[in-house]
Amino acid sequence: MKLQDHDFLRRYPTPFYCYDLPLLRDTLQVINKEIEGYPFVVHYAVKANGNPVILNEVRKAGLGVDLVSGNEIKAALAAGFEPGQMAYAGVGKADWEIETGLENGIGCFNVESEEELEVINDIAARMGRTAQVALRVNPDIDAHTHSYITTGTAANKFGIGLASLDEVVDKAWHMPNVHLLGLHFHLGSQITDMGPFELLCVKTNELLRHFEDKDISFEMIDVGGGLGVDYDNPQANPIAKFREFFEVFKHGLELRPGQVVHFELGRSIVAQCGALISKVLFVKETPTKRFVILDAGMSDLLRPALYGSHHKIVNLTSCEMETLVYDVVGPICESSDVFGRDERLPVTRRGDLVALLSAGAYGESMSSTYNMRSLPSSHFME
What we know:
Layout: H1 6-9, E1 16-20, H2 21-35, E2 40-45, H3 52-60, E3 64-67, H4 70-78, E4 86-88, H5 95-104, E5 108-111, H6 114-127, E6 131-138, E7 160-161, H7 162-173, E8 178-184, H8 195-212, E9 220-222, H9 242-252, E10 260-265, H10 267-270, E11 274-285, E12 290-294, H11 303-307, E13 313-315, E14 323-329, E15 338-346, E16 353-356, E17 377-381
Parallel strand pairs: 1-17, 2-3, 2-10, 3-4, 4-5, 5-6, 6-7, 6-8, 8-9, 9-10, 12-14
Antiparallel strand pairs: 1-11, 11-12, 11-16, 13-16, 14-15
């Protein structure tokens, strides 16, 4: 991100989210270039960041959307996405959310269980609609990421187990108010090693052959998302490894004529275009520690407290050459309200502006009013 415009940054009360729209557009352009000429469709995972300005940029780039709630369906419609561009996932869809999807004719429900399949069929019958569905398969592949964001192993709550898949596919194939489009997978999030995606291709090919032997073919395969970003050195690697990611599926999937591959990318699209801008309230020294206390807290950026994750921290306004070691913390009455321990920063003083980088994904979207704090605002750099 280009955060040298201090006049721009000082224009707004902190804390706030700052988004680099040119970087977002460059990222979307890279994605479109990499999938050009292939039967690939990319859906943006709105849960990563549902800011209307972000959604507008994604829509203009021609991507679809991956949704996990009824309100995300409404937000996507308000942003101008066509219902056919929408895929609705999630392990717990309420009846009103299913009804919202059916009323608007969304492109696909990613179904997580046999019971959900039956409920969707019943609701669709009552409404006189046909639901287009893909069955989410739990392929039992370990993505070797944080346990909270791993979704593709047998121990996770997501998807239909391989042992049950034949029965559920057969049931879906014969339901009167369901049109079975294909199979859906999602291994997890922040995956930086291409190995799990390669294993997913192997498993997908096995399943396609298995069902072809039963005279069942699928129109589409949804391989989910999960591509990670560089949180340690975001300035050097502002765009994720989309080429390597898509190459895995270009070469690894044995597609049949007419089959389309869907992707659901979120973090890798928006993480690096956003930063949380905060102001230093106090610099506190104890006999053993030196603390930088920010006006941003875990209510503004939850990932460090929730996952133990780390965002690169930059003092934007200090002109000091000398550096010191600090713990960078927030103002909230929780010992977990810590952004970084033993951070080496230039000498930092009250009033300095600090940026927490790579915060465009799961930053603003996970913010809350805990401690009755105001939600952070958002501003955009052109």
